[in-house]
Structure prediction request, 177 residues.
Amino acid sequence: MNESITENETLEISKSQRKREANELLELAKNLIAMPESRLKRMPMEQELRDALEFGRSIKAYGARKRQLMTVGKMLRLRDNTELLDAVNSFDQKNRQSNARFHHIEAWRDLLIEGTDKELSGLLEQTPGANAQALRQLIRNAKKEATLNKPPSSSRKLFKLLRGMDAEQPLPPLPIS
Prediction:
């Protein structure tokens, strides 16, 4: 059953597989056209492709934009896109990690404001060098602001303090309640 492929034989790719690959590259073209200018400039690509993407970004008419998208997709099919795909995936991975850190810090802030001194004590034990006095004061002020329906300025300051602590040393996982 398993025959080895010799140098003269070619491996045929099914039409469905070719269509899937073309659709993936078309999706990449959509992402590249929609990408912010600053990020697009850092992507590794040839000038011809960069010009086609810039032209696609400038088009406002739906039909013309779709035709340009197909042109960019065709250009991508004719190139080796591993370096470009790696750059896009790397940037997306960094964004996901950054968002996860942000949500983790938010969760700590919410836990400290809504919780008791037990959570703060646990955080202080696991992060030596944290400013305990500033944390306690910001938590107390944030609770007071929440009860008086005032803008959450202390909550924002607490978040900034936690973010600074996280930059020095990652915050520990949240305690399981």
Residues 82-114 form the longest helix (33 residues). The two ends are 57 Å apart (CA to CA). The chain has a mean pLDDT of 87.
